[in-house]
Predict the 3D structure of the following.
Amino acid sequence: MSYQRVKFYQTGTFTVGNRLLDEGDRTVQARTDRSNSLNSGHRACQGCGEALGARYALDAVMRATQNKMVAVNATGCLEVFSSPYPESAWQIPWLHSVFGNAPAVASGVAAALRAKGKTDIRVVAQGGDGATVDIGFGCLSGMFERNDDVLYLCYDNEAYMNTGVQRSGATPARAWTNTTQAVGTEPGNPMGIGKNLPRIAMAHGIPFVATASVADLHDLETKVTKAMSIRGARYIHIHVPCPLGWKSDPAQTIKVARLAVESGLFPLFEAEGGVVSDRTPIRKQVPVEQYLALQGRFKHLFNPRDEEALAAIQAIADRNIHLYALLPTKPAMET
Amino acid sequence: MKQQIEGSQAVAQAVALCRPEVMACYPISPQTHIVETLSRKVKAGEIGNCQFLNVESEFGALSVLIGASAMGARSYTATTSQGLLFMAEAVYNAAGLGLPIVMTIANRAIGAPINIWNDHSDSMAMRDAGWLQLFAEDNQEAVDLHIQAFRLAEELSCPVMVCMDGYILTHAFEEVDLPTQEQVDDFLPPFEPVQVLDPQDPVSIGAMVGPEAFTEVRYLAHHKHLQALEAIPRISQAFQDIFQRSSGGLLKQYHTDEAETLLLALGSVNGTIKDAVDDLRTEGWPVGAIQLCSYRPFPSHALRHVAHNAKRVIVIEKDLAVGNGGIVSGEVKLALQGLPTIVDTVIAGLGGRAISKAAVIDIVKAACLEGLEEPHFLDLNWEAINRELTKQAEQRRSGPTPENLLREIGLSSGKAL
Ligand SMILES: Cc1ncc(C[n+]2csc(CCOP(=O)(O)OP(=O)(O)O)c2C)c(N)n1
Ligand code: SF4
Ligand SMILES: [Mg+2]
């Protein structure tokens, strides 16, 4: 297929400026009547991907439900930076119970709404990668398995950030964290371990699973909006760089997120009923090194260069590209 | 209507009459018959639009109810033992959030060694979680306490555990007077939450609180329990007005007037204790009994009022604070502080060991005539213990203690195990 590269100078990216779009296609955030689920004044670090992702996702839920929504939050950065009493930044009904139970609490909210016949009010549960792939995994799987009417949003910053950057089951290969230090024969998080929660979610056969990134906020909003048009258990896994834990420049959060997508390390796709139904192609694959080099947590791979590790991480990206057919020229891998 | 019915069935009927809206349950003996019956009732459409969720764990079960209750739904579950410990984090959380959930505890021992029979170690482990804890003496009281529990919980916005002895009550067939729906509706108003997740009026529930206000928030939780000291007898009286029988309250007295020695216990063993008191009184012993119905809040004032003239209070408790002794007796001592009353601790009935009337009578006589060592373990097999202690002293790899004891007790009783 031949295509023409178009550059939009107002952003320097492939994002189409809102002004060029139909009224209906413009981002939720670009509208004059946009809501403010998560208000300014919260205590997230500068350049926090999680704060950005949460606000875009929840504002999209508010729009999709005409504000008839409830959010349940797991313990973690998002909960802590948004809620210190009495300065809650939330403009929506919001409930935090403990670290590992947000999916079950949300199931309870949904059950209460069913019991009361108020099914016009919708429920969202949200948590970090630790809350989702590790400690809350049992409750999450239960919520999926029962197909409860809950949208679960995982903000994946690839470690336990709120407790000071420790390894989670979503920490990538060879990343430094405070419990996978850059020392020893294989510095950082070991290769070949960890979980892929979007695929585990798909294996439950739930109606909708998607990945998204703060690199493409319009895509994030679209996926959230689509999720809200569906009933049953839905899961969106959102890649959210954490400048503090990744040792990256707060001003580069979007760039870092974009390189994760464009390298193939964080594939963007949708799945319905357990089958991949859509994906966002990469127009030009960038080498993983470009992504890794912006983050201090991978510094030990470059000083001196760890060719073996860099090749192994590149292979992960290449495999994703193959698996999800992210490059127009390459067909999907048999799965 | 009076029926010959299993305790679990009776409790399930009572819970159903309270019109719960969300239940989430996870099976564990001896709670299973309660939740099985409720699941059938919900599926048959007998409890309105009630939702019954089969969840993946007890932690999940109570977490579901935290969400449901915060959404304004009347919420119920039942568990025991390992299940209660598995949900521990959510147990504290539900109370901290002030959510009026009602939970049956089919009291059972905690392992290891794993043991499915009755004692009170489970609910005692959660005694400081902030839940009210009411103990039933028999199945009639278990039924009645559940109905009172919903009203109490919702009035105070505080969760309530109704504790009933596993197997001894849950699996016993007794005559129980089951109330009518009209009576229950008369007694129990619809749930009107003090806080609710409402898109029309959004609030943040469960926000972080730092040192500047945490103590005050905790005090207010304590204050709720102080209010419960007044609410429990009032609600028990309101119950009596409608149902024409007395159930619950802070504590119950049996021949306490002029009694020099008082026995004090929680739960079903009070039946045995009352029989022992009868026999002892016929023999001329000035004995009485106190049944503690409310363990949380602990009715210190009422207890002091009842016991201040007694020479001795013998606390028979089905739990053990390892390394210290009695849990309940410690609190009784605190309540009677400054009085000359002697408080004895008798650890009894652990892991389902039967507490016989004869043993209760003997212990009262021994206490009054010779005094008791503190704490006293009822019916302890010293022979088996000493053999095991000797073995442990003699060889480093003495092996797993429970298995050794089983073998020794099997040998000493002449049974091949
Ligand atoms: C049961 C329990 N274990 C541990 C903690 C400590 N803890 C609180 S937040 C957190 C890390 C959260 O990590 P994640 O879910 O990835 O969210 P993030 O802060 O990275 O956004 C941990 C370990 C806790 N609150 N509760
Ligand atoms: S530590 Fe990371 S996730 Fe947490 S607030 Fe800071 S940037 Fe955001
Ligand atoms: Mg994280």
